[in-house]
């Protein structure tokens, strides 16, 4: 039995897949933030027009620029594995496969869009990229991606993650990035957040708001985002396009495709190409997004117009959200603490085209550790959410005595998260979830403003 | 670019702005000195991109990222000037 399915370098996708061309539903357009006549200085477009076209156009396949594809080829295609030892440990008739993005230089899938964005921003004459990062995967990916284009990189990293994962900060600084813990005293947004709570753990919404303010104050700097935007999801489809070919090599098509859900780029990157292929191959294929109990935007949030950053200066998008001021409890999967789900994933969920589930941290680490023991790969805490759902699917298949093909995304390695696993081994991981009242209080201002 | 062509381009660009931004005003109210942040225009990064894509369609051109990113956009005049320059450079 084959356990790893590799592709040749020349099989790195030549195109990104734009699911907007195939969706039978409408994804509501973004809405501009309210006009602010108090603004000063020139209007600075934050997004290169090329990326905006990719975000809104109806072209099914977008050619990957040669320099970006050449960068991808340094480590892509990434491997797809059959988790046969995990199957054995679970005594399940299910076949479990996982697509592993941890082989990238930054250790996660995030660099797939970081390189693409750096290419377009660099070509536009931008000299400095500024961003917010949760767990640090995106920040470290962008720091690395700026190098080929000679750009500086400044990263606002969520304080709770920076404390939990100090080596992510080290990795960014090694790559020449300036790392600022958020909330910070560098921006008005950060100072206001610290005035409200000097011990604020921060959120990705605040970090992004700080990054926007900081970028706006510097002439040749621009803000970039690595999660829920349409073009970001599209850049990540190289994962699913490769996995389609690899599942062909395995001679199977998944009955369920599972991805961890932060804002949605990891989930979308794996699942969107399978959504397209499933129309012909297996229309019954399910797509499952897995989020933490601590930040249950899909399973307990509302489908509303909301801002993508804490300060509300970004355009509003229709998404499943807990409110842009929602303060998720601290968890080790900092990359999943974002308040909203990507507009495309949200629209698909709203129309029952994808499913969602949430997991507590104890179960997530239990499954992450079981996976590491069986397969040898230590999953990032974010990726371990997908592992947990895959294990539950496999156990259900055993109970139902059903053959089932399960594919999940292992979006990154957890070798910079060993302190989190140490906490798990020491019995210190605790489950946390917002109360209904907390969610209602966070959403009420949005509902009132409609 | 001669003056007549310049004026014609400015007119067409302002028409696109009014249409894309759904402004309930006449073209003459889009004076060159009006700030892009003013309540009349209320432009932001996103609506600027909407306008540029509409311009691309209307003139059948592709605007380079660098032309947009390097522009100093403060008022209606600077936006019209930037877009006119791009259209003229593309040979229209």
From TrEMBL, chain A:
Regions crossing the membrane: none
Function: The beta subunit is responsible for the synthesis of L-tryptophan from indole and L-serine.
Record keywords: Amino-acid biosynthesis, Aromatic amino acid biosynthesis, Lyase, Pyridoxal phosphate, Tryptophan biosynthesis
GO molecular function annotations of the record: L-serine hydro-lyase (adding indole, L-tryptophan-forming) activity; pyridoxal phosphate binding; tryptophan synthase activity
UniProt family annotation: Belongs to the TrpB family.
Record flagged with keyword Lyase: yes
Pathway: Amino-acid biosynthesis; L-tryptophan biosynthesis; L-tryptophan from chorismate: step 5/5
InterPro entries xrefs: Trp_synth_b-like, Trp_synth_beta/beta-like, TrpB-like_PALP, TrpB-like_PALP_sf
Keyword Amino-acid biosynthesis carried by entry: yes
Protein's name in the database: tryptophan synthase
Chemical reaction(s) catalysed: (1S,2R)-1-C-(indol-3-yl)glycerol 3-phosphate + L-serine = D-glyceraldehyde 3-phosphate + L-tryptophan + H2O
From TrEMBL, chain B:
InterPro entries in UniProt: ACP-like_sf, PP-bd_ACP
Location of the Carrier domain: 7-87
Signal sequence interval, chain numbering: none
Pfam families: PP-binding
Highest taxon listed in the record's lineage: Bacteria
UniProt protein name: Acyl carrier protein
């Amino acid at each position: 039995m084959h356990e790893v399915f590799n592709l040749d370098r020349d099989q790195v996708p030549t195109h990104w897949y734009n699911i907007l061309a195939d969706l039978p539903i409408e994804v509501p357009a973004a809405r501009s933030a309210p006009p602010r006549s108090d603004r000063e200085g020139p209007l600075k477009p934050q997004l290169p027009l090329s990326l905006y076209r990719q975000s809104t156009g109806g072209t099914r396949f977008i050619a990957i620029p040669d320099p970006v594809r050449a960068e991808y080829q340094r480590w892509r295609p990434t491997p797809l594995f059959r988790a046969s030892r995990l199957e054995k440990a679970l005594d399940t008739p299910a076949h479990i496969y996982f697509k592993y993005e941890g082989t990238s230089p930054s250790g996660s899938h995030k660099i797939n869009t970081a390189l693409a964005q750096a290419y377009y921003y660099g070509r536009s004459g931008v000299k400095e990229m500024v961003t917010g990062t949760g767990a640090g995967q995106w920040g470290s990916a962008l720091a690395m991606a700026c190098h080929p284009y000679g750009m500086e990189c400044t990263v606002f990293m969520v304080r709770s993650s920076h404390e939990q994962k100090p080596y992510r900060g080290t990795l960014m600084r090694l790559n020449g990035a300036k790392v600022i813990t958020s909330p910070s005293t560098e921006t008005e947004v950060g100072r206001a957040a610290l005035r409200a709570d000097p011990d604020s753990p921060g959120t990705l919404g605040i970090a992004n708001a700080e990054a926007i303010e900081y970028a706006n104050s510097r002439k040749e700097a621009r803000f970039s985002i690595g999660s829920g935007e349409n073009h970001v999801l599209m850049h990540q489809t190289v994962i699913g396009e490769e996995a389609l070919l690899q599942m062909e090599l395995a001679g199977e098509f998944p009955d369920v495709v599972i991805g961890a859900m932060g804002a949605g780029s990891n989930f979308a990157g794996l699942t969107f190409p399978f959504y397209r292929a499933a129309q012909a191959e297996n229309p019954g294929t399910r797509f499952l997004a897995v989020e933490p109990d601590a930040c249950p935007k899909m399973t307990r949030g509302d489908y509303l117009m909301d801002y993508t950053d804490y300060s509300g200066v970004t355009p509003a998008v229709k998404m499943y959200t807990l409110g842009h001021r929602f303060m998720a409890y601290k968890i080790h999967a900092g990359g999943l603490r974002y308040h909203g789900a990507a507009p495309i994933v949200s629209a698909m969920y709203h129309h029952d085209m994808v499913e969602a589930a949430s997991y507590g941290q104890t179960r997530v680490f239990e499954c992450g550790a079981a996976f590491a023991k069986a397969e040898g790969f230590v999953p990032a805490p974010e990726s371990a959410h997908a592992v947990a759902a895959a294990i539950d699917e496999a156990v259900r298949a055993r109970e139902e005595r059903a053959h089932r093909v399960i594919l999940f995304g292992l979006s990154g390695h957890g070798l910079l998260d060993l302190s989190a696993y140490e906490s798990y081994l020491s019995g210190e991981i605790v489950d946390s979830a917002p109360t209904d009242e907390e969610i209602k209080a966070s959403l009420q201002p949005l509902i009132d403003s409609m | 670019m001669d003056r007549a062509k310049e004026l014609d381009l400015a007119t067409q660009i302002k028409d696109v702005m009014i249409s894309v931004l759904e402004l309930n005003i006449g073209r003459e109210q889009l004076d060159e000195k009006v700030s892009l942040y003013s309540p009349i225009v209320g432009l932001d990064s996103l609506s600027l991109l909407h306008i540029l894509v509409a311009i691309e369609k209307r003139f059948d051109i592709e605007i380079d990222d660098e032309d947009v990113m390097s522009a100093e956009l403060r008022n209606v005049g600077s936006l019209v000037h930037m877009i006119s320059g791009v259209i003229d450079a593309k040979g229209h």
